[in-house]
Amino acid sequence: MDNLFLVAFNKTRGLKVAEKIVKADTWESRSRGLLGRKSLSREEGMWIIPCAMIHMFFMKFAIDAVFIDRQNRVVRIFRKLKPWRATPWVWGAYSVLELAEGAAEQISKGDVLEFRSK
C-alpha cells in the first residue's frame, strides 16, 4: 500500500517534507479532499492538482496549505488555516500541497518542491 503514496521534498533546502502524500488529480478525489478526516499526521498530506484555492468548510482540524506553480515553485503559503475558512484565489498557483498544521514550517515562498514515488 505504501506504493500509493508520494514523498514530498523541499528541493531548495534538501529536506523531506512528508512521506505519505496522496495525489488528488481527478474530479472526485479533488472534491473529496480531506473531508471526513479527523486529523492529519505530520507525515501525511494531499497534493491537489489542479487547484488555485481551497476551502475548509466541514473540516475538523487546521492545516498548512502550500500553493505551487507548474514548476513546483512555492508561490504562497497559508499556515494554520482553520476550519470554516477559505483561501483567496492564488494567482500563478497550479496545485496545492495540504499538510498537517505546522508541517510547512521549513518551506518558504520561492522554494522548489519535488514529489517522488516511494
Explained architecture:
The chain is mainly beta and 118 residues long. The protein has a single domain, classed as Jelly Rolls (Sandwich), CATH 2.60.120.1140. 5% of the residues lie in helices and 38% in strands. It has a 7-stranded mixed β-sheet with strand order 5-4-6-3-2-1-7. The radius of gyration is 13 Å and the shape is globular. The mean pLDDT is 94.
Helices and strands in order, then pairings?
Blueprint: E1 6-10, E2 15-24, H1 27-32, E3 44-48, E4 63-68, E5 74-81, E6 95-100, E7 113-117
Parallel strand pairs: 2-3
Antiparallel strand pairs: 1-2, 1-7, 3-6, 4-5, 4-6
How many structural domains in the coordinates? 1
Number of strands: 7
Largest sheet: 7 strands, mixed
Name the helix and strand elements from N-terminus to C-terminus, one letter apiece.
EEHEEEEE
Regions with little confidence, pLDDT below 50 for 5+ residues: none
Beta-strand content bin: 35-45%
Shape: globular
Helical content stands at under 10%
**Could you name the CATH topology?**
Jelly Rolls
| First-residue to last-residue Cα separation | 10 Å
Category from helices, strands and their pairing: mainly beta
Count of separate DSSP helical elements: 1
CATH class reads: Mainly Beta
Quote the average pLDDT. Answer: 94
Classify the oligomer.
single chain
